[in-house]
Amino acid sequence: DSYETDADAPGGNKNPNYSDGQAGAVYGQNPPLVNPCRAPGEFNTYDIVFHAPIEDAQGNVTRPATVTVLFNGVVVQDHWLFDGPTGWRGRSSYARKSGDTGLARTAKMPIAFQDHGNPVHYRNIWLRELPRPEDNVTHGTYYAKEADVAALREKTAEKLDAAFDAAWGQAPVARQYIEALRVVSYAANPERLARAAKLEKAYLKQLEPLTKKSEMDALGLWSRDVEMYLDELAQAGTIPADNAVLAKVRSLK
């Protein structure tokens, strides 16, 4: 199986739907959006982002192969979803043929440069392996997996725990409190919540006489950071919505 992007010089075929030989076309499937080809004798540049198809355990294609092509810096293929492997004079399909193992559809395969009997020159070729979007299961939302996200958050919280005493043990109460909230915002457990609650009592005593947020900031009590973390934790149900510090900060002018 192969997935071909044309690097031909623009031919004489003026049919805007012709996809078998235009520079920047997906061979046999999709013509380029525009033709930014340079004059004869000048080198052209191609930036090609390709992702192989994905199959399930039964060998069914769950996500087609895709390609995005920038031709001389101009987008000519915008996340094209292949109908199947490209080929000459035939409709593409991911359907299996008799005896087809399907391995070529998902395995890493060589990159080939075809000259078609013409003196085509290539230079300055760079290859960079890209992760599949589907492999990003911890950042973003579309492909995220809850268990993987939770595991990464716990790992981050453990790193912050390990550094807490060394980094913040001698810091003012306000700074310690914020860092304790930050750890809890990644992953809460009884020990982390207890540490935050202990610091919260000391922090609240410093807030009691204040009437303005500007007074908090003048004393280095970090009004914005504290409110941000507490609001996030309250929305997540990690702390009560009527948390005493959150209520006090919100009451300040």
Question: Which secondary structure elements does this structure contain, and how are they paired or packed?
Answer:
Layout: E1 46-51, E2 54-55, E3 61-63, E4 66-71, E5 74-81, H1 103-106, H2 146-168, H3 173-186, H4 190-207, H5 213-218, H6 223-235, H7 244-251
Antiparallel strand pairs: 1-4, 2-3, 4-5
Structural commentary:
The protein has a three-stranded antiparallel sheet with strand order 1-4-5, with no helix packed on it. It has a two-stranded antiparallel sheet with strand order 2-3. The protein contains seven helices and five strands; from the N terminus they run E-E-E-E-E-H-H-H-H-H-H-H. The model has no long low-confidence stretch (mean pLDDT 88). The protein has 253 residues and is an alpha+beta fold. The protein starts with 45 loop residues before the first strand and ends with a helix. It has helices at residues 103-106, 146-168, 173-186, 190-207, 213-218, 223-235, 244-251, and strands at residues 46-51, 54-55, 61-63, 66-71, 74-81. Helix 3 (173-186) runs antiparallel to helix 4 (190-207) and helix 3 (173-186) packs parallel to helix 6. It has two domains: 1-135, no CATH class; 146-251, no CATH class.
What brief labels describe this structure?
two-stranded antiparallel sheet; alpha+beta; 5 strands; 253 residues; single chain; three-stranded antiparallel sheet; 2 domains
The total domain count is 2
Radius of gyration, taken over Cα atoms and rounded to an integer in Å: 29 Å
Distance between the termini: 67 Å
Count of discrete alpha- or pi-helical segments spanning 4 or more residues: 7
Beta strand %: 5-15%
Number of β-strand runs: 5
SSE pattern, N- to C-terminal: EEEEEHHHHHHH
The average pLDDT score comes to 88
Structural classification: alpha+beta
Principal-axes geometry comes out as elongated
| Biggest beta-sheet profile | 3 strands, antiparallel
Strand order of the largest sheet: 1-4-5
Indicate the low-confidence ranges by residue numbers.
Answer: none
- Helix amount, in percent? 25-40%
